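=== RUN LOG ===
request id: a7f3
mode: sequence -> structure
chains: 1
length: 421
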Amino acid sequence: MIKKTFLFLGSLFIILILVLVYLSTFGVETDKFNKRISEKVKATFPELDLKLDKLKLILDPFNFKINVVTHNPQIKIKSKSLKLKKVSSNYNIISFFKKKFGIRNLIFETEYNNLNDVLKLARSIKDSPQLLILDKMSNNGKLYVNAEININENGQIKENYQISGELKNLSIKLLNNENIDDISFKFNHSKNKSNLTDVSFKFQDLSILSNEIEIKKNKKVYAVKGDINSPLSGIDDKITQKYLNIPSLKNIIFASNSNFSFDIGKRFKFKNFYIKSNINLKNAIYSINNKNLEKFIPKFKNTIQIQNNQINLEYKKNLTISGGGDLSISKEKEIIKYNIKKSKNDFEVNFNVSLNKTPIKFYLLNFYKDEKSNGKLSVNFKKNNDKISLDNLSFISNNNKFFIKKLDLSNEYNLIDFAKL
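=== RESULT ===
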C-alpha cells in the first residue's frame, strides 16, 4: 500500500513537473478572456472597439508570474483601425491571492499606423486643445511605436517607462497656409527626456536634416539642444524676397551645419537662445542700380557677386559673423574678408577687399588704379546709440595711398571730429 502511494505521488509529481515545463516553455492559447477584455475596454472608452486574437499564457514559476501575449490585435475608432504587432504583459500570481493589482508591465509594438488615426485614439481617451490643433494641422504621416511600461502593485505607472518609435512622411499645414513636408524622425522618450534622431523635413523645397535633437524637462522649463544641417541647395528668389525682404538678393546657393540650444518656459516663451553655424555660401548675387558707382568703378555692371564664402556665425546674446571668399564687383574675382559684431547697442564691422584686377577712379582725390596694379581696401567702423566711429578707412595701390583715421559722425551723419585725412 505504501509502495503504491509513493508511486502515485511520484507519478503526480512528475506529471506536475512536466505540466510546469510545458506551461513555462510552450504555454497555452485561449480566447475565453477576449470578450470580457473587449467589453471592459468598451465600457471605459465607448468609441473604441478592441479585437483580440488568441491570448497565449506562459508560466514563469520562478518569479510567480504569468506572461500574457497576443499578436495582431486591432483597435477600431469608428471607421478607422489601428494595427498592433504584439501586446504582452506580466501578471503577478501572488497579487491575485492578495486581491491586489496584478499587472506588472505592458509591452506593445505597433504596425505603421496613420498618425491622424492615432491622434483620434488619443483624443478619445483624453482630449486637449494641443491634440485638436495637431490633428487639424497634420496630414498623412505613418507612426510606429514600441513601448515598455512598468506598473506598481497599486496600478500606477512607474517612472522608468520607455517609448520609442518612428514617424515618417508627415506634412503639417501652418497657420499661414504654408506646408512643412516629408517630416521623418526616430524618437525615444522616457521621463522628462525625449530624443529625436535622423530628423529630416522640407520647407519651401529646402531640405533640412538633423542627427539628433534632445529635449529635457527641468521643473517648468524645457531645455532643447541639437544640430540642424542643410545640404548644398538653391533658394528660390521668391523665398528671399518674402522672408529676408531683400528683392535685390538672388541666386543664393548654400549649405550649412549648425548647433543650437534654447529653453522654453511658461506660455511657450523662448529664452537663452544659442546657435553656432558654419555656412558655405556657394553663390549670391546682389543687384545695385546706381550709375554713380560706374564713375568710381568703370567696369561695374550693376551687380555684386559673392562666391565660395566660408562664413562662421555665432549668437549668444551678441551676434558674431566672420568669413571670407570670392567677391566680383566687375567680371574679375577679388578676395574679401570680414568680421561683424552686433550687441544690443553696438555694431562693429571690419572688412578687407583686394582690388587687384578692378580699376578704380577717385577724381576728387586724384586717385587712380588700373586693372594691372594691385590694390586693397580696408574699413573698420563702429556704431552705437551716440555716434558712428570710422576708426580706419584705407585704400592702397602701389605708391597711391588714401587714409581716414578716427572720424566720428553723429547718427544723422554730421561731422563731430576726425584725427587724420
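=== NOTES ===
The chain is about 15% helix and 55% strand.
Helices lie at 2-25, 34-44, 93-97, 115-125, 129-137, 237-244, 293-296.
=== END ===
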